[in-house]
Specification:
The protein is an alpha+beta fold. The chain has twelve helices and nine strands. A hairpin with an 8-residue loop joins β2 (about 310-315) and β3. α5 (about 130-145) runs antiparallel to α6 (about 150-160), α8 (about 185-195) runs parallel beside α10 and α11 (about 235-250) runs antiparallel to α12 (about 255-275). The longest helix is centred in the N-terminal third of the chain and has 54 residues, at about 1-55.
Length: about 400
């Protein structure tokens, strides 16, 4: 903003110069006007003196006439070359008043109709954000400054999803659709946010949005992935495979998500070709881990009640992403939760797919499950463990 105000100041000085220069020039002409008035006064005094001498009998009529002519010639010689005064109708008061009021009016109109907030945001975005929380705050200010920008709404919605705020994301994508129209990509993102905001419950609205998106674009990736998840959860494994294969064909080689997606396809294929349980055989039990989480006494004064706490299980030897997760707040601690396959972040990566897992609890003021301020971690344990585990959040997050 400093550069902006410096530029505005220079322009203001230039504008003032156009108004004040004529006044200054008028002041330079003032000595010339004073000199002319003096010459006229001297001429009138000389004529009066000649008339007095003629009345006293010192000069006759011819000498009086000659003296007047000489005085007139001297007056003409003294004033010759002096520019005629320019006629001004504004005077001095109006230009000075304009010099003050015009900049003030311009500033008022700019602050009312201008875009100082947008200039500031542009300069702020020139620097990379230091955290996801800062990025979210910037995007929220962009949306506030540009409420008609569907693009800003879209990026804010994606950021909310990355922060695991699907309800906020759903409202933001809905606004983006209202601004930009019912574009397939926006419909898919909106449906995904609604699905996760409803705790992974399929609804007629989600069904309708994905139907509309895939009708307009059969290769819309978000809708394909979401429909595959819904089909897998509903044990419609062939349908899940079909959706995910269509999605896999859209992903470029080397994309990090191809491996996980292929794993989901393979898992669905195994389920599709698996043998049904024989009579009398127990059905396979999904993994269920019970964990009690509490906050160390030393940290009671260092956290806020509304700070987010993520409780999750991750593979001891596998991808670092959580396999199952719960989200609570510091105010709810101590708390006992259960992590199971129903809490899986991705249907193709569940607790029961890994023999050994690690339990983690993390306090994150920014609402990021991958990074926070304080953490508690347990030792690796079998995913089939039945006993309740205990976690204490007591260490700085590395």
């Amino acid at each position: 903003m400093i550069e902006f105000w410096l530029s505005a100041g220079l322009l203001l000085l230039a504008a003032l110069s156009f108004l004040l220069i004529p006044i200054l020039r008028g002041r330079r002409r003032q000595p010339e006007e004073d000199r002319t008035a003096l010459n006229v006064a001297l001429y009138q005094e000389r004529v009066a003196e000649l008339a007095a001498q003629q009345a006293a009998g010192v000069l006759n009529e011819a000498q009086l006439t000659k003296g007047r002519d000489e005085a007139a010639r001297e007056l003409l010689a003294d004033t010759e070359g002096t520019d005629a005064p320019r006629q001004g109708h504004l005077g001095k008061t109006l230009p000075l008043l304009a010099a003050v009021l015009v900049p003030l009016m311009a500033l008022g109109l700019y602050l009312h109709f201008g875009a100082a907030d947008k200039v500031e945001l542009t300069q702020e975005f020139a620097e990379a954000p230091k955290s996801m929380e800062e990025m979210t705050a910037r995007l929220e200010r962009v949306v506030q400054a540009q409420p008609d920008s569907a693009e800003a709404m879209y990026f804010l919605g994606r950021t909310y999803m990355a922060e695991q705020r699907p309800a906020d994301a759903a409202r933001t994508f809905e606004r983006a659709v209202a601004l930009a129209g019912r574009q397939p990509e926006l419909l898919g993102q909106w449906a995904q946010a609604l699905y996760f905001a409803a705790d992974k419950q399929w609804s007629p609205q989600v069904q309708g949005l994905t139907d509309e998106a895939l009708k307009a674009d059969p290769n819309e990736v978000t809708s394909l992935g979401l429909r595959g998840i819904a089909a897998f959860e509903g044990e419609r494994y062939q349908e899940a495979i079909d959706y995910w294969k269509r999605l896999l064909a859209q992903l470029p080689e080397g994309d990090a998500s191809r491996t996980a997606l292929q794993g989901g396809i393979d898992r669905a294929a195994e389920r599709l070709g698996g043998k049904p349980a024989q009579a009398g055989e127990p059905a396979p039990v999904a993994a269920r881990l019970k964990v009690r989480v509490e906050l160390a006494a030393a940290l009671q004064g260092k956290v806020k009640p509304d700070d987010t706490v993520f409780i999750f299980a991750r593979a001891s030897n596998g991808p670092p992403m959580p396999l199952a997760a719960k989200r609570v707040t510091v105010a709810q601690l101590p708390i006992e939760v259960e992590l199971s396959d129903a809490d899986a972040m991705m249907p193709q990566m569940k607790l029961s797919d890994f023999a050994e897992v690690q339990l983690v609890a993390r306090v994150s003021r920014a609402g990021q499950p991958t990074h926070g301020e304080w953490i508690g971690q347990g030792a690796p344990l079998p995913s089939a463990t039945q006993a309740t585990q205990h976690l204490t959040i007591d260490s700085p997050d590395p």
